[in-house]
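quick one
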Amino acid sequence: MSFVGSWISFLSPSAIAKNGLSQGSCWVKFIFSAVTVTVELEMGHSAAIWDQRAAVEVTKDCNGTGQVVLHSPRGASARVSLHGGQVVSWRNDRGEELLFTSSKAMFKPPKAMRGGIPICFPQFGNRGSLEQHGFARNKIWTIDDNPPPLHPSDSKGKSFIDLLLKPSEEDLKCWPHSFEFRLRVSLTADGVLSMISRIRNINGKPFSFSFAYRTYFSVSDISEVRIEGLETLDYLDNLCQRERFTEQGDAITFESEVDRVYLSSPNVIAVLDHEKKRTYVVRKEGLPDVVVWNPWEKKSKAMVDFGDEEYKQMLCVDGAAIEKPITLRPGEEWTGRLELSVVPSSYCSEHFDSPQRSLKVKLA
Ligand SMILES: O=P(O)(O)OC[C@H]1O[C@H](O)[C@H](O)[C@@H](O)[C@@H]1O
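structure w/ 6-O-phosphono-alpha-D-glucopyranose:
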């Protein structure tokens, strides 16, 4: 289908209804700022070159929460909820969902939806006095129309949205530190998903926090999955009172519950799904730790928003800063970046066999 054709079908009411955008929505807004589209005709085929910001849809529903859908010109998409600033869907150009969402997930505040990429801030797990994984994932974020600039490469050729979280009076009672948390979520034409978090101390005193992009990857079968890039690292085992161990295996595979924080990890990690013949590549910056979590059978049964057998279809691999909390002095800002891409495993076996050696790709 030509680019123009696919664009028109994207705008049609049936496409909007198919994407579920009109259901229960108070309004739908399309943002096409600074879009430059060139359509080239060559040998009877049409191709599109999309130079600038691509299509971003914003939908707001009646209970005050909303979603933003990012579209790539080649058909990939990402959906971000204002509830939690949580990425709730990431699809490739064939429409395949790459993130896990539980069939029992609840999409209503105040709790984060089980799946996607909830943000753990300012606390990870129960390492502190706040609610599990901190409050950011449970709050309503706003769209930031005028964020401080990022590097031009963070915008060029991408569809993106900027979100903002500031503490409420209630948040300040349990965590008395004023901050601005800016989140940029973007999608490249090839469907690479990026998240950039900028957290600024606007308080008169220093504060410390921990952080994780809890990333629920969708996998064919957990027994067919392995992680490369964490071998030989030290980790804290949440199942053994955070005792420190050293990883011994060649790669990480799964046959029981896992809940670990790998320390001082390389900036590129690969999650290989043999059955699907695809590999997720996780690139990160500013995030020294990697959490690996799968609840397995017993814990799955204990979670109300998670199916008994669903542990087989998911794996959390989170870029994180946990062991050494980040400290910001007044006026200082911290940045943590995550970039997710997916490649066929045939490509991976050639290029990603040893992530520590060959995946030294700097984030743009
Ligand atoms: O159910 P959640 O609050 O999302 O937490 C899910 C899991 O996250 C972490 O990995 C914790 O160490 C686990 O103890 C917890 O069960």
